[in-house]
Amino acid sequence: MNEINRSPTFWRSFPIFEEFDKSTIAELADIATYRKWPAGTVIFQRGDEGNYMIVVISGRIKLSLITPQGRELMLRQHEAGAIFGEMAVLDGQTRSADATTMTASEGYVIGKKAFLDIVTNRPEAAEAVIRFLCAQLRDTTERLETIALYDLNARVARFFLATLRQIHGNELPESANLRLTMSQTDIAGVLGASRPKVNRAIQWLEESGAIKRNEGIIACKVGRLQSIADPEEG
Fold this sequence. Notes:
By secondary structure, the chain is an alpha+beta fold.
């Protein structure tokens, strides 16, 4: 696979581009370059110049920080349909985290200058990008709230619900199956906890009837997860 996908439906599946019109998407496809990376590739590091962003076609890529004590803090994992590296492109600052492929991955690279030319010349595109960044900020605020204000059982429940919303949208079914591509160590990194504690929290959720595990599939009872995720509302 090395040709650029020019379908408006494809490009609008990425939230930052979902409001772009056909002509803007055509320009976007013109400036995109196909790339693939083997597992374990460091795409960029914290402090690097932010001269491009990446839309993910396949694979899994983590954004992380290394603490002064040598501990890795995982910020996010990106899979097909995600975009990353856009912040440094838009604010002109250096990279704020390391980006490393966890599996063999493919994506399109979009250069900073060419993308900014599109946004500068098309006010409606600039407005769409601003709305996307605001949504990202709200998501970050919610993540910080989760870590700061909720116990680990609630944090894991909120993690499962957030993952389900990525699949189903905000209107969740009463029950839904989830196949996680993240290990418990990865989840622990996202939630700011240790793997053994996350394991105990997942066991507790199962004992409480919120989830049921079977051969890599997690059957989720959405209402029960919501009552655990927000106990004051339950």
